[in-house]
Specification:
- The protein has 493 residues and is an all-alpha fold.
- It folds into 2 domains: 452 residues, Amino acid/polyamine transporter I; 34 residues.
- The protein is 75% helix and 3% strand.
- It is built from 22 helices and 4 strands.
- The strands form 2 sheets. A two-stranded antiparallel sheet has the order 1-2.
Length: 493
Amino acid sequence: MLDLVNAVNGIIWSPIMIALCLGAGLYFSIRGRFLQVRHIREMLRLMREGKSSEQGVSSFQALAMTLAGRVGTGNIAGVATAITFGGPGAVFWMWAVAFLGASSAFVESTLGQVYKEQIGNQYRGGPAFYIEKGLGMKRYAWTFAIATLFATGLLLPGVQANSIAEGLKTAAGIDPLYTGIGLAVVLAAIIFGGVKRIAHFAEIVVPFMAAAYILVAVVVVAMNIEALPGVLRLIVSSAFGLDAGFGAMLGMAIQWGVKRGIYSNEAGQGTGPHASSAAEVSHPAKQGLVQGFSVYIDTLFVCSATAFMLLVTGQYNVENTDGTARFIGVQGVASGPGYVQTALENVLPGFGALFVAIALLFFAFTTIVAYYYIAETNIAYMDRHNRHPWLGVLLKLCIVSATIYGAVKTADVAWGLGDIGVGLMAWLNIVAIFLLRKDAFKCLRDYEAQKKAGKEPEFDPVALGIKNAHYWEGRAAALKLQGDSARDAAAIK
């Protein structure tokens, strides 16, 4: 079974996938005139703008919910693995992927907003919604929804829980069963509270989690500041095959840097639009720009923090494709979080290993919460006309059970099947957002034109020739009616 799963993953996560993600990011960057650079100030401003409503969350809360999914164990283990098999140059290519991926994140999150729906008393949206409404392909949309539901609702949460349990067992000797029960109790309290509770949880935990991790990284780098210039030169030279020690690894640097960058920031994979669609905004491009910056936070900040801690301390190994050692900086430690734990423990004795375990706890747990929200949104899509509340309850029970089971025992097959689900999401979503790219860039041009005219941007899909954006059609009609009533009242006076 495992061999079959690995073979399928080898096909789904092939170099074609890497080329597709990079190509889409490059195309969107050029088409948007490198919006990820031009609008950085606007991105930062929009994060602070807007408030939650009865139906939706604030822009910042939606950003935090998205980051909860983006920032996970991959920001620690994934970076360490990339350096092991791709050398220090892999870090540069992770940065490159983040830069290009910001435009992909803009496109998919803008589309999520354009085609969102109000189901019950909540905004819901994501790839399944814009595939059906934007492309008119219901079977295509259902395929995405089912793949996403099984990956994020049943398989991947247990793997994340296992990472937490193993980290706490190593650092503090805590029994995995107790960890699993504790995680399940806290998780149940959050997810049974609905999307608002998830948003409030993410709003508090995610910034704290990321800031604490980056702060510790700054301390580690400061304590090894003399090594920093050399590390920066090593990253750049290795990225282009110019370093004497790692020059022969150019191909692997690109492959692993791009692969782990895509896996970490998830730009274009279809996870981000689920949370971004829940935001209360006056124009879809607003949340698209906010979500574009989320990729920077994930890769340029958090992943870079891991990379610099490893490289300035020298606590990492690099292997050739045949498994032989090219560079040995640490003995008897497997590639992954162990590198980071060793690096911190050497610099900050008695603190390092435990801190990484706690960081893993926060990173992985918030990812489980994000998985639940993504799975719940796809259930809402599939059941939005029939309304079977028991499906939501069943999902909650499944994800809580998967968390307990995964903490105690998880299988490589579950991780592999989860990767297949996420990979299918990526394939289906990238094709969809490329086909719908015109709608996203119509939104961008409209937003920029209104800002240039000194207006507070308001979205009218009919005026832009965008069909089936039913929520926004109703909103625009209501605003027009309000304007007409105000003018009539003024005329009477």
